[in-house]
Automatic annotation (TrEMBL):
Keyword Hydrolase among record annotations: yes
Highest taxon of the lineage: Bacteria
InterPro entries, A to Z: AB_hydrolase_1 (IPR000073), AB_hydrolase_fold (IPR029058), Epox_hydrolase-like (IPR000639)
Keywords: Hydrolase
Keyword Magnesium included in the entry's annotation: no
Identification of the protein by name: Hydrolase-like protein
GO molecular function: hydrolase activity
Annotated AB hydrolase-1 domain residues: 40-269
């Protein structure tokens, strides 16, 4: 098996991936698999796809992990979930996918942003599918502050849309605007265009906090210190998470914002390694 290259080009990474599908209503949930070794499932955030983890594929596979990275239902190449347009409709499809791929064997999961909500709801609903959960930039704790993002769908012309995408990336996703490259805008624009899950309201409630309190598997949390969602609310967030019975660690990457695994991959992967017991770089 050839080494997976470190690149921001999705096409290059897909050439090294195996694509699989699991049921999603009458359609499919699309998964990509890279590497070999102990399985690790990576869940992306809202208005995203597997490319939210694009800078994690090479280092994690090089460390001996087999990565399973889906497009969650309603995003990327996966079909919309039956029964709704929010995380609670996605969670049962994820559970079905985990059962299809791993049977009764629980698997480690690292979940970014909206994916953290989906994973938490899934494990609270049907315990035993997740062996260990690492939440990354989790937004759905009823503490995240609203951000002023610009609309782009009404704009004509690619240049105008890219300008808005670049602005929104700077407001929400990355702390340092200088790190927003043309490739970053490409990834974000492609993901936004394929977002069909437009009813995401649970992220503004305490649904995730309630699900985390019910967790039986070990829980770890990683945030970028400059995550715009929690700019002045870190004490409240820390107190809330430290009150979770399953919490084993809460760690911060100092030089990153919300999309921490993309903006500061080396610092993030070092903390992920600690959370997973040394199973990654």
């Amino acid at each position: 098996m050839s080494a997976v290259p470190a690149t921001d080009d999705p096409a290059v990474l897909l050439a090294h991936a195996t694509t699989l599908t699991t049921p999603c209503g009458t359609g499919h949930m699309v998964w990509r698999r890279w590497g070999a070794g102990r399985p690790l499932v990576l869940l992306h955030g809202g208005s995203g796809s597997w490319t939210h983890w694009i800078r994690s594929i090479a280092p994690l596979t090089a460390a001996g992990r087999e990565l399973w990275v889906p497009d969650l239902p309603g995003f990327g190449d996966s079909d919309v979930p039956p029964g709704g347009g929010d995380a609670d409709a996605v969670a049962p499809v994820l559970l079905q996918g985990l059962a299809t791929l791993f049977g009764a064997q629980p698997v480690e999961v690292a979940a970014f942003s909206f994916g953290s909500l989906v994973a938490s709801l899934a494990e609270a609903q049907a315990p035993g599918h997740i062996a260990r959960l690492v939440i990354v930039g989790a937004p759905a704790l009823a503490l995240a502050q609203p951000l002023r993002l610009r609309l782009w769908q009404h704009l004509e012309g690619e240049a105008a849309r890219r300008e808005v995408h670049r602005h929104n990336l700077g407001v929400l996703m990355l702390a340092d605007a200088a790190r927003i490259t043309e490739a970053t805008v490409d990834l974000h624009a492609a993901n936004m265009a394929r977002d069909r899950l437009r009813e995401r309201r649970l992220v503004r409630t305490d649904a995730m906090a309630r699900a985390l309190r019910a967790l039986r598997c070990p829980l770890h949390a990683i945030y970028g210190r400059h995550d715009a969602l929690y700019a002045d609310r870190w004490p409240q967030l820390q107190a809330l998470l430290e009150g979770m019975p399953a919490l084993r660690s809460l760690r911060f990457v100092e030089d990153a914002g919300h999309w921490v695994q993309y903006e500061a991959p080396e610092g993030f992967h070092a903390l992920l390694a600690q959370a997973l017991g040394g199973g990654c770089p």
